[in-house]
Amino acid sequence: MEFPLYAANIIVLANKHNPAIASKDWLTQKNIIEEEITKFTHLPVVSLIETENFELVVDLDRLQLSIKKISPENLETLPQIIFKYMSKLPETPYTAIGFNYSYHIEIDQMKLKNLLLINDKKLTEIFTESYMFGILVKFQYKDFKVTLTLNPINGTKIKVDFNFHFESNKIESLLKNLYEHSQTKKTTEEILGGLYNV
User: Fold this and answer.
1) How many CB atoms within 10 Å of residue 134?
2) Domain extent at residue 84
3) How many CB atoms lie within 10 A of CB 158?
4) Which residue from 48, 53, 124, 161 has the least number of CB within 10 angstroms?
5) Which helix (H) or strand (E) element contains residue 5?
6) What span, in angstroms and rounded, lies between the C-alpha atoms of 108 and 156?
7) Which is nearest to 43 in space by CA: 12, 26, 19, 24?
């Protein structure tokens, strides 16, 4: 079963990014963003760049590149843009990268209750018959610390968020782990399949 992706981004943390560098001209000249830039805000403490498919925000603490239009091509391009950006600024004191994926899936709450052996009778006594619950799971995947969060939207729909977090002050390690992006996406789908097919 396919699980449509709702949102995806990559975050790069640093002891201090320099938003002043991330100008429209610099990003274009360095071929970091090859699409036409449709919106641009450049202040000393933050830069915001938008194209048809992506939104890039750089402030002093973090860089966040988000996909505006989810597609296989844009998912492939996402880590490539980050790789080019970081490679052009190797002197930046980077500290971590994070891959984030969000899904909205339809799943019966009773399936999740059975999976987690929830004592529905007891919880109904404590709360009400119409209670909903979420889940927070932390686990290791290769070099990444992963946080999986399931939040109920309504009785059948759940928002599922994955965060793959890798910390290092070595740019080589951070760039190497950018290549794991497509594999981490596959891992999210495998986990969703396991939850759905309980």
Assistant:
1) 12
2) 5-196
3) 23
4) 124
5) strand 5-14
6) 5
7) 19
